[in-house]
Design a protein that fits this description.
The complex is a heterodimer.
Chain A: H1 3-7, E1 14-18, H2 19-29, E2 34-37, H3 44-53, E3 60-63, H4 67-79, E4 84-89, H5 90-106, E5 112-118, H6 132-137, E6 142-143, H7 148-165, E7 169-174, H8 175-178, E8 180-185, H9 210-225, E9 233-235, E10 242-246, H10 250-261, E11 267-271, E12 274-276, H11 280-287, E13 292-296, H12 302-314, E14 320-322, H13 342-353, H14 365-371, H15 388-403, E15 408-410, H16 436-445, E16 456-461, H17 462-479, E17 484-489, H18 518-525, E18 529-532, H19 537-548, E19 554-559, H20 563-567, E20 574-577, H21 592-597, E21 602-605, E22 610-613, H22 623-627, E23 633-636
Parallel strand pairs in A: 2-3, 2-4, 4-5, 5-7, 6-7, 10-11, 10-13, 13-14, 15-16, 16-17, 17-19, 18-19
Antiparallel strand pairs in A: 1-8, 6-12, 9-11, 20-23, 21-22
Helix pairs in contact in A: 2-3, 2-7, 4-5, 10-13, 11-12, 15-19, 16-17, 17-18
Chain B: E1 6-13, H1 18-31, E2 35-41, E3 50-58, E4 72-77, H2 80-90, E5 91-100, H3 107-110, H4 119-129, E6 133-136, H5 138-145, H6 151-161, H7 169-179, H8 182-199
Parallel strand pairs in B: 1-4, 4-5, 5-6
Antiparallel strand pairs in B: 1-3, 2-3
The chains are: A alpha/beta, B alpha/beta.
The structure holds iron/sulfur cluster (2 copies).
Chain lengths: 639, 201
């Protein structure tokens, strides 16, 4: 929120930053020169912030086509001695993992930091993942901030640690850090001054097992170094009866939980800021003094498993462990699933300590609820009012009905993933990972040789198309798979906040780009394609219906800008219901607009028995007006 | 300061601008010399889900980003149903509530599958739980100020005018002034003022 805070020159000033801004500031304080990312929640705003200040700070920032390409570009800058930063969500690490593993073997030169955003509870992801296990598998050191302030400090310090170890260093941030805000005390800003230096003499090679041995010794050295890290600290009584080992924001929750239980006098907390490799000596020193250890971390028992393995070797049978493995530390969905919070930890710790914890509540809750007849309607996610995807899903549904052969619809990752739910008329039948829809469609499209005779449709967004769809498309063309690929092109990466992609005219830094039109790619692959505006619903239905009846791999581009981007700063069209024409419940349509089409701005005025447009929500797309069977919805063009 | 830390929850529906409101409060607090921790729960919030920001202010201690159950001191509800939802989990008998009276209908209600409770009933239910309830027509006031979308600043103004925060109007004005430019700034300041006047005194 506060770009001014991120750019503040004066050290020592206190400003409020979001976690992602704090990460960006930390990188600036380390003199980062090269940064790249593919947008993903919860970390999307890190590169967004850096790209906005890039010119001012002489750094290079790019939205790459995908995470693997981002990581490779960033590694190249590091090979040439520059400090560099790559940012991605957990799912992105899966995409980049092949290179990440190789890079951990070759090592790097200029400090290289990987910011990984994990999303416990899957607030803005299709699943929750704990990327620490992958980092361990690839031999990458991991730091874990517990707060916004620490996110800034850790990012800054991670560059130095990376140079010391000649290894990329991971800063693993969860949503409760990235999407939090807090006061931070700013350090000195450093302008990148190093000149890239990579000559015929430099070799960064990944080959043979000798390097594996080198990797192990780097990690052993890291394990030694992190024992003295200021990011690990103990708070609590001098001779605690038990120890909580906490990482990430769980450290803050554990403190508050112990306070609420009144158990701070007997229980100490060891905050682990360096979760891989473990600071073994430090852990042993603390564990030797207590008979009981409790783990507080998200999502999986990562620290827990590794500390228990350490103790099994060094302190066999001496310590009793409580955590997810024992089932004691668990949220409502069970141990190792979902987020922790102060209440979950208070209940879990209370259970272990034999203290009853009941969260604060009020007396009249039941009475209040009964006033609402005990009904609190859920708030389902929905496409925004005027979203072109709603029109597209409507058209696909209508065309499939016309076709009548029970065509199947495969999905992908983006705003349109919501098409699996009511807002997309439950059309999507598969949702996996970036680009998977096209690969799956290719497979389904090959099943005709076994007698499979249903039409196959896959829906993919524009950003996802560039990110992960192209090899699957080539494969489909090569093998002549029988399916129809619909690209929902809203000309941006809408889901994560409208970042540009290779189909756009500008780069992250606002420089003019060499646009790579998707038509050129599709043509290059050798596939036929049609472009259609989804707001023209009738025409879209017709085109889809025709294409359904064709054979081989084929593409339809439904192109219309994301409505949020389209209406920004513009006067919207005014849309209203002509109450004389709307015949409400008596219409054969059965309240078509609000009940069936269901744009959130199509509301129902129960008193009047007429449809109404909620002007605070409507974005003026006019699609409902074109669909209303009575022609009762009017559009007044904005000026 | 009355409570240490002071726990505020700002809640509403994606697209209503809650997050911006919580950012304004936190920036104003830091300017006034407080420590602040904000936890945002918004998920894919542009798309109509429930949104909730936990804002915690303290004179000197760092707080976690999440408020424990039953420990909200102030709730600013941008939408009646969402206010109710938050209160069920986070209210205590002393919680003060500032609520926009304008419903935003979930899909299930639009389709007729669920019923959105009668707005007066929601008010009554909220009062049952926490008698200290202030209802205001924030969306209408925002429309008067120039755009229904500025309801978030009306609510921020109401929060500032409630006297429940340990710092005053000036901090907010200077933050809003620095975040926006031109006519958007004027619109937001005007919306802020109208919310402030509603609650002040
Ligand atoms: S014109 Fe109709 S479909 Fe479009 S945003 Fe407004 S109410 Fe929704
Ligand atoms: S952000 Fe854009 S693409 Fe995504 S749901 Fe909203 S209007 Fe649709």
């Amino acid at each position: 929120m506060s770009l001014a805070g991120v750019c503040q020159e004066k050290a020592g000033v206190k400003v409020a930053l979001t976690g992602n801004e704090a990460i960006a500031r930390g990188a600036l304080e380390a003199g980062v020169a090269y940064a790249a990312s593919y947008p993903g929640s919860p970390t999307a705003e890190v590169l967004g912030t850096l790209s906005r200040v890039a010119k001012q700070f002489n750094l290079y920032a790019e939205w790459s086509v995908n995470e693997k390409v981002a990581m490779e570009g960033v590694a190249a800058a590091s090979f040439a001695g520059l400090r560099s930063l790559v940012v991605m969500k957990a799912d992105g690490l899966n995409v980049a993992l092949d290179f990440a593993g190789a890079l951990a073997i070759s090592g790097c030169r200029g400090g290289m930091v990987m910011v990984l955003g994990d999303d416990p509870n899957a607030h803005s992801s299709v699943r929750e993942e704990d990327s620490r296990n992958l980092c361990k598998a690839k031999h990458l050191p991991v730091l874990e901030p517990s707060s916004v302030r620490e996110a800034m400090e850790m990012t800054r310090e991670a560059f130095a640690l990376s140079e010391e170890l000649e290894l990329p260093v991971v800063v693993r941030c969860v949503t409760r850090v990235c999407h939090a805000s807090g006061d931070v005390e700013l350090g000195e800003l450093v302008r990148p001054e190093r000149k890239p230096d990579f000559t015929r003499e430099n070799r960064v090679i990944t080959f043979g097992i000798k390097l594996h041995a080198g990797q192990e010794s780097k990690l052993a050295r890291a394990a030694h170094l992190v024992c003295d890290s200021a990011f690990n600290s103990y708070t609590g009584p001098e001779n605690p009866e038990r120890l909580v080992i906490a990482s990430g924001p769980c450290y803050m929750y554990a403190q508050e939980a112990l306070e609420m239980l009144g158990a701070g006098g007997t229980t100490g907390i060891l905050k682990l800021g360096t979760t891989w490799p473990l600071p073994e000596a430090l852990l042993l020193e603390h564990m030797e003094r207590v008979p009981e250890v409790i783990f507080a971390e998200e999502v999986e028992p990562f620290v827990e498993d590794n500390v228990m393995a350490l103790a099994a070797g060094c302190l066999p049978g001496k310590v009793r462990f409580y955590g997810k493995r024992s089932g004691h530390v668990a949220g409502p969905a069970g141990p190792g699933i979902g987020e922790l919070d102060p209440d979950v930890l208070a209940a879990s710790l209370g259970n272990i300590l034999g203290i009853n914890y009941s969260p604060g509540t009020i007396d009249n809750k039941q009475e209040a609820l009964s006033l609402l007849e005990d009904k609190m309607p859920d708030r389902e996610l929905a496409f925004c009012a005027g979203c072109p995807h709603r029109a597209s899903f409507w058209a696909v549904r209508a065309a499939l009905e016309l076709d009548g052969r029970g065509g199947i619809v495969l999905g992908d990752i983006g705003c349109y993933t919501l098409g699996m739910a009511r807002t997309g008329y439950y059309l999507l039948q598969t949702v996996h990972c970036m680009g998977a829809g096209i690969g799956l469609a290719g497979g389904m499209g090959n099943l005709s040789r076994f007698g499979f005779d249903k039409p196959v449709v896959t829906l993919v967004g524009d950003s996802t198309f560039y990110h992960a769809a192209i090899p699957a498309l080539i494969n489909a063309r090569y093998h002549n798979s029988n399916f129809m690929c619909i690209i929902l092109d809203n000309e941006t990466t809408a889901m994560t906040g409208h970042q540009p992609h290779p189909g756009r005219q500008h780069t992250a830094m606002g420089e003019p780009a060499h646009t790579v039109p998707m038509e050129d790619i599709i043509r290059g692959v050798g596939m036929p394609y049609i472009v259609q505006d989804p707001y023209d619903v009738e025409a879209s239905i017709e085109v889809i219906y025709d294409l359904l009846r064709q054979e081989g791999p084929r593409v339809l581009i439904l192109r219309r800008s994301c409505v949020l981007a389209a209406v920004r700063g513009k006067q919207k069209d005014r849309v209203y219901v002509n109450e004389d024409k709307c015949i409400g419940d008596s219409c054969g349509c059965g309240r078509f607009c609000s009940r069936v089409f269901a744009c959130p701005a199509n509301v129902w005025d129960a008193e009047k028995g007429r449809a109404r447009i909620d002007e605070a929500v409507c974005n003026g797309c006019g699609v409902c007006a074109s669909l209303c069977p009575q022609g009762a919805i009017m559009v007044e063009r904005g000026v | 300061m009355v409570k240490e830390p002071l726990n505020i929850i700002i809640t509403g529906v994606g697209g209503q601008g809650n997050v911006l409101a919580s950012q304004v409060v936190s920036a104003a607090a830091v300017q006034a010399g407080y420590r602040v921790a904000v936890g945002e729960t918004f998920g894919v919030s542009q798309r109509g889900g429930s949104v909730m920001s936990h804002v915690r202010l303290s004179l000197n201690r760092p707080c976690g980003p999440l408020i424990p159950r039953g420990q909200a001191h102030v709730v600013a509800g941008f939408e009646p149903l969402e206010t109710m939802r938050v209160l069920l989990d986070y209210a205590s008998a002393e919680t003060v509530v500032i609520m926009n009276n304008r419903p935003n209908y979930p899909l299930g209600c639009l389709s007729g599958e669920h019923r959105y409770p009668d707005p007066e009933r929601v008010e009554e239910a909220v009062k049952k739980m926490t008698p200290r309830l202030h209802v205001l027509p924030a969306t209408e006031l925002a429309k008067e100020a120039g755009s229904p979308l500025a309801a978030n600043m009306v609510m921020t103004g109401a929060l500032a005018g409630s006297g429940l925060l340990p710092f005053g109007r000036e901090c907010f004005i200077s933050v809003i002034g620095s975040l926006f430019q031109g006519i958007v700034r004027d619109l937001n300041l005007q919306a802020f003022e109208s919310g402030f006047r509603r609650m002040d005194g």
